[in-house]
Amino acid sequence: MRAIITLCNHGSGRFAVQTDRGFSVLRLIGDYDIDEGDVLEGDFSRPGREVFKNLTQVEEIEAEVLEPQVTPFTADRMVKQG
Asked: Based on the structure, what is the number of domains in the chain?
């Protein structure tokens, strides 16, 4: 499944993505350069660690899906509060 990064908190490593099923909140595991607007590919549908392809940066990143399928408001709050 593909998703677009909609919000990043570089301090906490948390970020939100929008898929065709809604929003998910993730946390980076490791030091990766991600930006809002990057397109990722992977499984955003269940909590846990996953390796995602960053199609924009042409690299693989490891991240943990914290909350799949949340509202935009919840995603915004979770990312900003870190």
From this structure: 1
Which tens digit of pLDDT belongs to each residue from 35-58?
A: 999 999 999 999 999 999 999 999
Contact call for residues 15 and 28 (beta carbons, < 8 A): yes
The HSE-up count of residue 4 (CA atoms within 13 Å, CB side) is 4
Name the residue with tokens 């939100």.
Answer: 16
HSE, side-chain direction, 13 A CA sphere, residue 62? 4
Q: Check: CB of residue 78 under 8 Å from CB of residue 25.
A: yes
Q: Tell me which residue has tokens 């906490």.
A: 12
CATH of the domain at 28: 2.40.50
pTM attached to this predicted model: 0.93
Domain of 49 in residue numbering reads as: 2-81
What is the dihedral angle through the alpha carbons of 50, 52, 3, 54, rounded to the nearest 10 degrees?
160
